[in-house]
Queue: 2 jobs
Job 1
Amino acid sequence: MKEISVGLIGFGTIGAGVVKLLEDNRELIAGRLGARLNLKKIADLDITTPRVVAVRKEMLTTNVEEILKDPGIEIVIELMGGYEPARSFLLEAMRHKKQVVTANKALLATHGDEIFRTAEAEGVNIGFEASVGGTIPIIKTLRESLTGNGIKSIFGIMNGTANFILTKMSDEGKPFDVVLKEAQSLGFAEADPTFDIEGIDTAHKLAIVLSLAYGKRVNLKDIYREGISGISRLDIEFARELNYRIKLLAIAIARGDSVEARIHPTMIPLDNLLANVNSNYNAFHIVGDASGSIFLYGQGAGMMPTASAVVGDLTDISRQLLKGVSGCVPARALREDLIQNIALMPQEDMVTSYYFRFSAVDRPGVLSRISGILGTNNISIAAVIQKGRKESGAVPVVITTYKSREKDVRNALQEIDKLDVVLDKTVVIRIEDDKL
Ligand code: HSE
């Protein structure tokens, strides 16, 4: 049986998972591929700490050049993460005509153009299924299965850590900090937890998804982004009362020649599928103009689920090598020369429903002053909740709205937060009521 030699850069959690999977399912994979995947070399700075899987000592090296310069190695897997030296290693591998597989979403979201163009120029494949949604085949779905569709919208839960935190806060009433520590100990949080909590990791993933769905280059900075660190138990409780659950959603909606793209904590109805995606699970609700709704669900992080996506890419690319072809599927689902910059829709023009929690003095006429300002800014009220009475200090007054323009909301809140009867900055959470 023919053998294809593979080099692995990065022997951390996911790297070890890939080695284990290639070992555990060796015969199954060989049978499906019609060839053997021979993991020839593994490079990492740490080659002494024991991993979940034992490897022969001579397979390990601290010198990446032993992989990049080995003419026998046909596919290089990069699982070290970070920008440098991961970027240089990937570029060098491709310049040596090696096929590459990576899970590095931060790198693809910021240096994707250079990397994808190099892959095309060198005539090599790049697999990056593991960069978004862990085990979920979202890249393959957008790149291959939905080729015949214009993509109307994508709503996704793309960060397992944030979802784990919101789920625990909601189900167990635990505070944010305690749950964050639990997530970190389970091993799916990023090295820097602000990437998970502040929606940066989600933005990396959404940028990749946008480029595949719309064949465009997206500037990460243009994506509107809000994280979950401001979500309090009080808002989770109010959401429950209003029949919503709060999720950190990544949203992409085609708007004519432009695309609306935003990431923020979102209240969604309890009977919506996304509201029921819990713990560290991820999900994507995609609407194609021919396909209609597609819902993908699975583990967005973790050793073996992510390894599954890496091995899927390995076999895809190996099949092309075995047939002597390459680049059958364009990296970004579109001919590279057709890929253009995209101007995302200005944030101020976004339209959605809103939840406001005002910290207001409990006195006659306060609600009418607040609602008056909302009214003069074209914001129509859907519901009001005020509970409890307080002689002094503030009480929470919750107002939900019908669809309103972001610009109007910003203007109204600026005015309201200046009122002498409003004692704290108003909490704003967007609501997506549409049936998904
Ligand atoms: N930190 C990421 C998450 C890992 O929590 O989803 C997978 O990208």
Job 2
Amino acid sequence: MKSREQWGSRLGFVLAAAGSAVGLGNIWKFPYMTGQNGGGAFLIIYLFFVFTIGLSVMLAEFAIGRAAQRNPIGAFAVLKGKAWPLVGAIGMIAGFLILSFYSVVAGWTIAYIVKMASGTLVGDADALGAAFGSFISDPVEPILYHALFMGLTVAVVLGGVHDGIERACKVLMPMLFVLLIVLIIRAVTLPGAEKGLAFFLMPDFSKISADMFNAALSQAFFSLSIGMGAMITYGSYLNRHENLGKSALWVTSLDSIVAVLAGLLILPAVFAFGFDPAAGPGLTFITLPAVFAQMPGGVFFGILFFLLLTVAALTSAVSLMQPIIAYFSDEKGWNPKVSAVFFGIVIFVLGIPSSLSLGIWSDFHIIGEKGFLDSVDYITSNLMMPIGGIMTSLFVGWVVADKMKDEATNNNEKKFKFLNGWLFICRFLAPLGISWVLISGL
Ligand code: TRP
């Protein structure tokens, strides 16, 4: 067998994993979830989940991947076998489903680059809201952008782990960061922005509900890219010397910082323009063009913003696709380039109903009142990924704990202060906590 590809450096790995984590989940989903779930109190519960269960599951995935040097299904098979590879299989199915709607939304961001540049995003907040609504409900245009985005994803995956994924992340992630800071300065100085800051940063604990815990936990899993094997796959390209605990802490922290920055950008603008914070998925696409309209050089910043958001989405999308490619290459001997093109087409087709569900198919409800896109999002984020998280934690905490201890400390070469804390979370807190949130949410 050809030797397995590896990341070029520790920084390259951390940025690629952060590239996976930071995406639409942080900049598009997090602000509107915070808006729908009462603001500051949601933020606190979210951060609590991220730095306890989330961080531990991410480390567990890195350790499984590096120990096995395999795709998610193969990793569970080499480490233990029996029924465990099923966990990897569920994760891979989740990857297909998530990417299918993720690419639709990422297509919107490409469309918004074009719309910013061509000057069609003008008018007041109402006009921008109407423009967004008519764009996403169109039966053709968003699907073309979805196709374009899937094409870009396949192109990066074709470039390979080191030259494709790692190289792109190293340049573009830092740029995104800087641009967010510039935009926040504009947003928080808008008249009326302070109400948004208060909403986001001053928790109102009277708003806490069981739904909020469910939303915060599923958002944590989605945002950190955990519970479906993406981080197992990324860990499998790591060499023996990296410090896994530190890397997981870095990735988790960067992801949370970007989510908080996005909140600081979107929510003050929402209040300044008098939008409803609970408006949902349109929030980013409506509020931000309104911000750009009010700032000098708005068109320039607008184009740059949607460009970087597209890139952030792209580095996440490749991580949703890579486990599938790795599986067929490790286990079935498929040529990774052929499978990238083939599965790219499959996922594109799977995404079409998601796009149509916002327009001509909006009357079809799959789960309760939810259409196709929302249903796929719900099943993957609220069920499949948390269940993947439970199984991954149990696996590390109980089934292969000794091996995982060696993995997390590089065979006692590195001190890892939180080893026992990590194992405790994997054994008890994560499985019980996630189960409790899942059950109370049903
Ligand atoms: N974390 C990404 C985001 O926030 C999305 C993502 C990439 C993802 N890979 C994943 C979500 C794996 C779940 C599982 O946009």
